[in-house]
Design goal:
extended; mainly alpha; 82 residues; 80% helix
Length: 82
Amino acid sequence: MSGNGMTPEGLKRLKNLATFWNPRLEAATNDAELAKVCFDRAKAAARRAQKSGDIKAMHELAQEIANWAAGKERAEAQRDAA
């Protein structure tokens, strides 16, 4: 195990994920494409977590997205009321 608490296999997995996702993130030509890539990445991570036994992963992702959306909706409503 390395000094950061990860096994060589864990570090290799992170490197492989970076190799997969970084070019997609860099290739996004606008914010909408970037958001889609980030959403796909988060969804893939939640699926992997579920496969590994974290049965709440997808629900937690959904809650994070819902909380973000609710904050944006509140801000919009406050702007409209001003």
